[in-house]
Amino acid sequence: MKMFLISDNVDTKTGMRLAGVKGVVVHEREEVRAALDTALKDKDIGIILITEKLGKLIADDIKNIKLNYHTPLVVEIPDRHGTGRTPDSITKYVREAIGLRI
Predict the structure, then answer these.
(1) What is the pTM of this model?
(2) Among residues 69, 67, 25, which one has the least CA distance to residue 50?
(3) Could you tell me the CATH superfamily of domain 2-98?
(4) Which of 19, 50, 76, 82 is the most buried (most CB within 10 A)?
């Protein structure tokens, strides 16, 4: 299985390309959705990496994929400026996904 990157930053794409990960650089919501749709259609892609900034643009789409698709795994990654997540983001995700408070 392959990994695919959806990034808003050329530097992130370059770094991931050096690690063998192909990807695209996009900036607008519709570009992000189009890149995500293209990646979802490729059955060889098992992991989609998306920068957190772009993840926020299509948060509902990503949430739908995480909750309803077996593959691919969607992973939001910080860009070179660091993470934008709150300290309890994983706890919140688990609570929303399965309804348990941990």
Answers:
(1) 0.78
(2) 25
(3) ATPase, V1 complex, subunit F (3.40.50.10580)
(4) 50
